[in-house]
Structure prediction request, 261 residues.
Amino acid sequence: MSETIKADKVMDLKGLPCPMPVVKVSKGIKDVAVGQVIEAISTDPGSLTDFPAWAKTSGNEILKTEQDGKEIHFFIKRVV
Amino acid sequence: MEALEKQFQEMKARLEGVEKRLPSNKISMIVFSGDLDRALAAFIIATGSVAMGMEAVMFFTFWGTPLLRDKKKDAGGKDLVSTLFGAMLPKGVEKLKLSKMHMAGMGTAMMKSLMKKKNVASLEEMVEMAGQLGVKIYICEMSMDLMGFKREEMIDYPDLTFCGVAKFLEEAMDSRIQLFL
Prediction:
């Protein structure tokens, strides 16, 4: 059974190519408190490698990645 | 015991010295080219770097200098050579050409419409975004002088400084990544 994660904020990044998904998410995550979760929805296939790279570098945590057709949903917990 | 203490103090001082020389989490770029494609790459890397939690510094020199001119601004009091140079070089990012497949403007126009269709941010938007993100821009004073550009004809950018090579090198020495574009 897959657990559902409740996001405190949803970011719609659909249709945005590189570098916008990562640029926007790095700004947007500052709108939630440390420990809270954002759900970022991207349609850029490059996000699949870019988001983990960004999370690792910035020190945040991707709790779950879900693919729904062309949409990629990232559940990211703000750690720093 | 005293010798050990002395050795420890010596080691501590040396470690502090080493720490001082560690570069910051920063990227320094030289934008030498005035080609649309290269300038776009430079701004994508700069904005991406800020997203990755780094500081980003761009140093515009030679053919990269004219792209920071403001299309709406003019500067008077230039001599003939400077006026000619000014007229022949692209005035602002909108006027840049592709390094390949420009094809008398057709290729560049096609690329721009393709970018629009694919939602890729234009160079104008990238420059604005870089400004909002705090990307630092340096402009080479010598290139300005050589090409006859005046400060009052350059773009309004939040963090823009005119400088020489020493300033760039100071930034580069303090950066983990240095690129030449």
